[in-house]
């Protein structure tokens, strides 16, 4: 399974990427929304899940999700953020294919959240 990891912090992106690779996922990584859209157009339907930081340098994560969802319908998405809830956009958490995990988080929580989302397919 392929995960699109979109995180602007290099150390966080690298650490999560290594963890996911060791867990058996193919991971494609992007530091911003524009790069993620380019990657998604190349990998397309191979992407099983997008892991998106909500505060990216070039767009908010919910905007990226809307744009990705036009390319890959029903894309499973796990949003992450370390910002307080009052500073976050309203997320479509009523959808079974969308979830949110606040930073900082344990890698076991990340693994569980991804497994739960992938089980909804």
Topology, pairings included?
Elements: E1 2-6, H1 10-22, E2 26-30, H2 33-43, E3 47-53, H3 61-71, E4 76-81, E5 98-102, H4 107-118
What does this structure look like?
The chain is α/β, with parallel strands linked by helices and 121 residues long. The chain has one domain (2-118): Response regulator (Rossmann fold), CATH 3.40.50. Helix content is 39%, strand content 23%. The protein contains 4 helices and 5 strands. A 5-stranded parallel β-sheet has the order 2-1-3-4-5, sandwiched between helices. Helix 2 packs parallel to helix 3 (61-71). The mean pLDDT is 91.
What are its keywords?
121 residues, Rossmann fold, 39% helix, single chain
Q: What would you report as the Rg, rounded to the nearest angstrom?
A: 13 Å
Number of helices: 4
Enumerate the spans where pLDDT stays under 50 for 5 or more consecutive residues.
none
The CATH homologous superfamily is termed Response regulator
Amount of beta strand? 15-25%
Helicity, as a percent range: 25-40%
Main sheet: which strands, in order across? 2-1-3-4-5
In the CATH scheme, the class would be Alpha Beta
CATH architecture: 3-Layer(aba) Sandwich
Q: How does the helix and strand content classify structurally? A: alpha/beta
Report how far apart the termini are. Answer: 13 Å
């Amino acid at each position: 399974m392929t995960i699109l990891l979109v995180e602007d912090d290099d150390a966080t992106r690298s650490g999560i990427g290594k963890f996911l690779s060791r867990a058996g996922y193919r991971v494609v990584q992007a530091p911003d929304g524009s790069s993620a859209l380019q990657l998604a157009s190349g990998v397309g339907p191979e992407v099983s899940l997008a892991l998106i930081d909500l505060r990216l340098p070039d767009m908010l994560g919910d905007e990226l999700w809307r744009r990705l969802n036009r390319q890959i319908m029903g894309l499973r998405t796990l949003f992450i953020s370390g910002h307080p809830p009052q500073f976050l956009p309203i997320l479509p958490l009523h959808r079974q294919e969308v979830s949110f995990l606040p930073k900082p988080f344990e890698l076991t929580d990340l693994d569980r959240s991804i497994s739960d989302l992938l089980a909804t397919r």
